[in-house]
UniProtKB/TrEMBL annotation, chains A, B:
Keywords: DNA-binding, Nucleus, Transcription, Transcription regulation. Residues 1-61 form the MADS-box domain. One of its GO terms (cellular component) is nucleus. This is MADS-box domain-containing protein.
Length: 93, 93
DNA sequence: CGACCTATGTATAATGT
DNA sequence: TACATTATACATAGGTC
């Protein structure tokens, strides 16, 4: 968006990179919030920047709660949409 | 966006909610990816849906690595942008 | 269910204050 | 250095296949 099309690669200018980080971090958090409300989803978002900034978001539940839930998933269930009834059972357990 | 402006509240129609989830999940992951590349940031994103879907994203590092880093932060350092030098020192330690 | 289409609302890059 | 503005690229609601 913006005045010019932006290539998706590391922004070399430090000031520009931090300004862009601030803006996009806010946008990403807003989107995460909207998704969590619209679709009744638990979302956890964590960002670490090498330039010394941290940002995170989560909906109703605490980030910790969501992280624990994720970590407790068997490995093969991480990372792809669930579809079978049995998988859904497990997810809801 | 879209043809109609959407209020930010839970979408009651199940089908619509799942369709919106699919679309916005993809959009959110794309944004997270762009942020991680443009700003050289580690991002972890986890989504749990009550309707039985799971989605996640992380950049170079594994989600687990980022989660561990987050969990190991002292409580008072979680949750807001870092600004003072001393805080940045701690974050980089 | 996901992929594509298109009108329209949003996010945001560059710029101004 | 942060905040406001503006032009423009992007995301997406609703619909079709």
């Amino acid at each position: 968006m913006g005045r010019v099309k932006l290539q998706i690669k590391r922004i070399e200018n430090t000031t520009s990179r931090q300004v862009t980080f601030s803006k996009r971090r806010n946008g990403l958090i807003k989107k995460a919030y909207e998704l969590s409300v619209l679709c009744d989803v638990d979302v956890a978002l964590i960002m670490f920047s090498p330039s010394g900034r941290l940002g995170h978001f989560s909906g109703n539940k605490s980030i910790e709660e969501i992280l624990v839930r994720y970590v407790n998933l068997p490995e093969h269930e991480r990372g792809s949409p669930m579809s079978t009834d049995s998988q859904i059972e497990v997810l809801h357990a």
